[in-house]
Write a structure and sequence with these properties.
Two copies of one chain form a homodimer. Chain A has about 190 residues and is mostly helical. Chain A contains eight helices and no strands. The longest helix of chain A is centred in the N-terminal third of the chain and has 24 residues, at about 50-75. Chain A starts with 7 loop residues before the first helix and ends with a helix. The first copy, chain A, binds a DNA duplex (30 and 30 nucleotides) through loops.
DNA sequence: AGTCCAAGCTAGTGCCTATAGCTTTTCAGC
DNA sequence: GCTGAAAAGCTATAGGCACTAGCTTGGACT
């Protein structure tokens, strides 16, 4: 019987796909193994267990999200950049719900690779807010508000917490507008 | 051997306590049964399964949260009421993290009791925003923004998503202030 | 005291993670 | 081309979980 050609990266990718299909909370090693036509214990040759798989999916998703955000914001500034990034954030969460949920989990203390991915996203958000006149603590508070807005909105949207789906784009746009308006222009 | 005196309500309460202690995602029927000194299958005499337990905890938590929000907002109006309610929301989420997570899950379609609990919270939020000059769609967008802000903030806070040492209370206060300022006064 | 229903029990299935130890593929070095 | 070792995937197994089936027994009511 030929080998499946597994490795840690392709397993993480399969886990990410699975998360998008059946939900981040529902992924199992057994289902990932089935996807490769391989027995579940075989995965342990490449990955230490379910916890490590989840962590790998989180890193993968965090990198993707980071790339989407920077791509959206590049070449724009101020409110324009803010809206572009916020839209990219929500679009990613809708298109890749399992990956998005994965991207949100906090890195384990000491997991520097994972921490760097999370930090990278923060840097991008910070850069986008660089178009406003924020200094020191003001910037920290603004970043927190923006993250809370975006994360809260997409999470509630995914959870089915909002009725009237036709108005959601408008709600999101106005919400970001409101934040933008409450920040001092440079 | 004396009977444990189980019923659906006390099981839900134990599930809620357990969720606060070990996490909403981690609750199991086995752990709830152990809490009563009873075998796991015995719970099935009162509750249809894990899914129903979770639903019951969600209803219980939603009622508690609703009560906290209304208590906080009563006798206040405008920005004062908004801040009081938002603070109560975050306080509840911090004090009862498992219950809070439970309260957020969407009711199953047709579960009218659960839907009413969720709707009640919405009515309270709506009432608090009654102090602003919002009509029709404007109000819907404002409610969504407020919920996204509150939920996003407390979720990220619980997940350890805010690493920096700057004062979280201050971040939250400013965030709610920002929203309040972006809404038209009556 | 006797009846009877519901409460809690044991036994067992199936799915999951994870570990131990086996077999087989692959390929580097001869 | 051969060979031997490392790596890949395997079977077997233990232990935890949800859930079902069917038994026993507590205790309220007559």
């Amino acid at each position: 019987m030929p080998r499946a050609g597994l490795n840690r990266a392709v397993i993480a990718a399969a886990g990410a796909d699975l998360a998008d299909e059946i939900g981040w909370q529902e992924i199992t090693l057994a289902a990932v193994a089935a996807r490769f036509g391989v027995r579940q214990p075989s995965l342990y040759k490449h990955v230490a267990g379910l916890a490590e798989l989840r962590r790998d999916v989180s890193v993968l998703a965090g990198r993707e999200l980071h790339a989407e955000l920077t791509n959206a914001a590049v070449g724009r500034s101020g409110s324009d950049a803010l809206h572009a990034m916020a839209d990219a954030y929500r679009t990613y969460a809708k298109k890749r719900p399992g990956r998005y949920a994965a991207s949100v989990i906090a890195p384990a203390p000491g997991d520097t690779e994972h921490e760097q991915v999370a930090g990278g996203i923060l840097v991008t958000v910070e850069a986008v807010l660089g178009g406003y006149d924020l200094a020191g603590d003001d910037e920290i508070h603004a970043i927190r508000a923006l993250r809370a807005l975006m994360h809260g909105f997409v999470t509630l949207e995914q959870a089915g917490g909002f009725a009237l789906p036709q108005d959601l784009d408008e709600s999101y746009r106005r919400m970001i507008d409101g934040l933008s308006g409450s920040l001092p222009r440079r």
